[in-house]
Write a structure and sequence with these properties.
The complex is a heterodimer of chains A (510) and B (290). Helices cover 32% and strands 25% of the residues of chain A. Chain A has 510 residues and is of the alpha/beta class. Chain A is globular. Chain B has one domain: ABC transporter involved in vitamin B12 uptake, BtuC (Orthogonal Bundle). Chain B is 72% helix and 0% strand. The longest helix of chain B is centred in the N-terminal third of the chain and has 27 residues. Classes of the chains: A alpha/beta (510), B mainly alpha (290). Chains A and B meet through helix 2 and strand 8 of A and helix 6 and helix 7 of B.
Chain lengths: 510, 290
């Protein structure tokens, strides 16, 4: 690459400090125009800070920013926007009650005679839609559109403003595999039309699949810059975490014991679901002690319903017929709390809603679900000293960082929040583990830890039900795989019996 | 009889409609506004004083508008600058207005709790009534077809999106709260220079809260909320007619029972319909960029 043209984006020696924390230290980043550039790193590695500096949302303490070779000192985010920079946020910036059209033209409305000229905007958007192949129903309220389309609206928002450098923050976190494939096809088309794309992600598979180059962040610094074709996930993971990481844990086959840890027979949940599919029908499954049973499937095929039916069988909103047996008891008419006390550890699918109280400190979150049990409770009163010592020991054992029991849990990274949940749920050896999306939004380093912990629980004799949208996770951990499609179990495989491609097809309903 | 009742319904609804529009401006932008009551009181006093001083109800109404804006500025300072809890701050503003307005009367006219009467020739005949409904149409138009309306709505539904589009959420909300004060001030002006011809202590009598109830009942949309105001206005007009009417026996129904009618209807309406109403998503949540 002799006499390279000016890079679309160049950060030189950028530093930013928050209080005592160096969020970005001497960051160099060079993104060639017309490429897809991956920005990877664990949570808190400084990716977001670097992007905020680039977008003018923060000001650097030192260092320089160049866009298409021009030095830039942003007076405001609007100035960065005017230079053609734009970002698709992880949590979409869309007002659900407003139409796609209004969401797109917000802040860039063509006005004629005091009124918004929606017709003119529509004409322009039709052109963009054709050029980039991004179909959207302009008049539908955004909240009625699928997530994949909402993301398309976010991209169109940037294109409508003539952005030529698009930053996407964890764009696949909310997408189904199929929507992800569509997104990637769209990103390639955008690149071929001359746009420059920065893709922030922690999914190494995606980096390998779509980027041209990749920059790795760790602890506020850039630890590596690679041409994607010349690197591999193992090397990237090492640059991210700073040590060797086992990406695909080799798991020894299970030695399941006789007996049943969890058994569901002919579970049904009647009622309308999205797209008219059944919510749950004829679901029967069995988990033996000492094995991991994986539920594979694309999001929205009944996973949430199945979990709710297993945990709240007596609630008619969760189960309309069928039985649930748990550790030798018929628990169909039991309350969730009583079921949990049999020795059931739960890693809920949405830890923010069901697993943690984000505004409360670590100490109290560690107590959730155990508040009536000894040693934390005596004579109807809590025993803070017992709680503090148990929580401190568990936080240390599970390496939750920072290990500050008084810190609000919302301040922890996703991986550390999940480790705290594991610390809480595994404080007594569980006999049944229900783990839903255990590594969603969790760093590479913590993923390995979580996988090891689940396998250890299995080897100690617990039955493990693993519900996951990640095919690799299911293939690596599960001793038996059940495919959930449109509320029914449509296939079953033993470990090693099915390839990733075949399982993917089954998950898609073929 | 019926014609008269309809006529008086529109008359007594007028202050309510203005206050409702004030609530609409602020709440659609995501700021809860219980302070409407206090802004109406300020507006009522301001308009009475202005009219007495200038002998023009139009200039008086302008004073009422200004007084409302003044109090709204205080409210904005508390909830937008200092991010206080909006419900608590709103109640505080109302108590402040309830106590201050009679005190001002005392200082200006040396009368306790009220202003002198405005001469008949100097107060409004019908203009505020038409003004209120022109305001409703205008609000509908602005929210639907103009840029300020779109920004206002986004400030209440998803302030983050507005911010990401390069527009200051705080500025939009400030303007919304000040507009709210102006409209509630006009509502107060209608009370003192149109519905009656003086200012008296606590003359808003809960109309600020009723305007909020109408807003909720009308799902934060101008026309349905205005119709809800008419409903409350109707019960108010009805109670006026029912006073002294003998329904059974020889004694008329005690006046206190009749006077609670509008409030009872408000409660029933809210209890019956509030569950189906959808508030702006970010209502009451101070904006913070993450």
């Amino acid at each position: 690459m002799a006499a390279a043209p000016p890079a679309a984006v160049e950060l030189r020696a950028l530093s930013k400090r928050f209080g005592g924390v160096l969020a970005n230290a001497d960051v160099h980043l060079r993104v060639a125009a017309g490429t897809i550039h991956g920005i990877v790193g664990e949570n808190g590695a400084g990716k977001s800070t670097a992007m905020k500096l680039l977008l003018g949302l923060l000001r650097p303490d030192s260092g320089e920013i160049f866009v298409h070779g021009q030095p830039c000192i942003w007076a405001s985010p609007a100035a960065a926007m005017a230079r053609g920079l734009g970002m698709v946020h992880q949590h979409f910036m869309l007002a659900g009650a407003y139409s796609a059209l209004d969401n797109i033209l917000l802040g860039a409305e063509p006005v004629r005679g005091g009124m918004i000229n929606r017709r003119q905007a529509r004409t322009r958007l039709e052109l963009l839609r054709q050029q980039y192949g991004l179909p959207v129903d302009w008049d539908s309220p955004v909240e009625r559109l699928p997530v994949g389309v909402q993301q398309r609206i976010e991209i169109l928002k940037l294109l409508y403003r003539d952005a030529n450098i698009l930053i996407l923050d964890e764009p696949t976190a909310v997408l189904t595999p199929r929507e992800t494939a569509e997104l990637f096809a769209n990103l390639r088309r955008l690149r071929n039309e001359g746009k420059t794309i920065l893709l922030i992600t922690h999914k190494l598979k995606e980096v390998m699949a779509i980027t041209d180059q990749v920059t790795v962040f760790r602890a506020g610094r850039v630890t590596g810059e690679r041409v994607t074709a010349n690197t591999n996930p193992t090397e990237l993971a090492r640059l991210m975490v700073g040590r060797d990481v086992v990406l695909n844990l080799a798991v020894a086959p299970a030695k399941p014991q006789v007996g049943v840890a969890l058994e569901a027979a002919d579970l049904h949940l009647a009622g309308p679901a999205v797209g008219g599919r059944t919510r749950l029908a004829q679901v029967s499954l069995q988990v033996r002690p000492g094995e991991i049973v994986g539920i594979a499937g694309v999001e929205g095929n009944g996973q949430s319903e199945l979990l709710q039916a297993l945990l709240h069988p007596r609630d008619p909103r969760c189960r309309t017929s069928g039985t649930v047996r748990c550790l030798g008891q018929d628990v169909t008419h039991w309350e969730a709390g009583r079921i949990r006390e049999l020795g059931v550890a739960l890693v809920p699918e949405d830890r923010h809603r069901e697993g943690l109280l984000l505004e409360r400190p670590l100490r109290e979150n560690f107590l959730l679900g155990w508040q009536r049990r000894s040693p934390f409770s005596r004579g109807g009163f809590l025993r803070p000293s017992a709680l503090t010592s148990a929580a401190a020991a568990a936080v240390e054992e599970y390496d939750v960082r920072p290990a500050d029991l008084g810190l609000a849990v919302g301040r922890l990274s996703g991986g550390n929040q999940q480790k705290l949940i594991f610390a809480r749920e595994f404080q007594e050896r569980p006999r049944l583990v229900i783990a839903a999306q255990p590594t969603r939004g969790v760093d590479v380093g913590a993923i390995e830890f979580i996988h090891r912990r689940l396998v250890r629980a299995r080897d100690e004799g617990a039955g493990v039900l693993l519900v996951s949208f990640e095919i690799e996770e299911i293939l690596a951990l599960a001793d038996r795989i059940l495919v959930l499609y449109e509320g029914r179990i449509t296939a079953e495989f033993a470990r090693g019996e099915v390839s990733e491609a075949e399982l993917g097809l089954k998950m898609g309903g073929s | 009889m019926l014609i008269q009742l309809i006529g008086s319904t529109f008359r007594v609804s007028t202050p309510l409609v203005f206050a409702m529009l004030g609530g609409l401006a602020s709440e659609r932008a995501g700021v809860v506004n219980l302070a409407l009551e206090g802004m109406m009181l300020f507006g009522a006093l301001g308009a009475a004083v202005g009219t007495l001083a200038t002998h023009s109800p139009w200039l008086g109404a302008l004073c009422g508008l200004g007084s409302g804006v003044l109090l709204a500025a205080v409210y904005g300072l508390v909830v937008l600058r200092w991010r206080a809890n909006q419900v608590v701050a709103g109640m505080g503003i109302n108590m402040l207005a309830l106590g201050l307005t009679p005190e001002f009367c005392k200082m200006l006219y040396d009368q306790t709790g009220r202003t002198p009467a405005i001469p008949l020739a100097e107060h409004f005949q019908a203009a505020p009534m038409y003004g209120a409904w022109i305001g409703v149409a205008l609000a509908w138009f602005v929210l639907r077809f103009t840029r300020p309306g779109l920004w206002l709505g986004f400030a209440g539904e998803h302030p983050g999106a507005l911010d990401a589009a390069g527009i200051s959420v705080t500025r939009v909300r400030w303007l919304a709260v000040l507009a709210s004060g102006a409209l509630a001030g006009l509502g107060g002006a209608a009370l003192s220079t149109f519905s009656s011809s003086f200012f008296s202590r606590d003359m808003a009598g809960g109309r600020g809260y009723m305007a909020l109830a109408a807003l909720i009942f009308g799902k934060w949309r101008p026309l349905p909320a205005a119709l809800a105001c008419l409903l409350f206005g109707f019960t108010d007009a009805l109670q006026d007619r029912l006073q002294g009417v003998v329904v059974w026996g020889r004694e008329p129904i005690p006046v206190q029972f009749i006077q609670i009618l509008p409030y009872v209807v408000t409660i029933l309406v809210l209890a019956g319909f509030v569950g189906q109403s959808r508030a702006p998503k970010a209502l009451g949540v101070p904006f913070e960029r993450d």
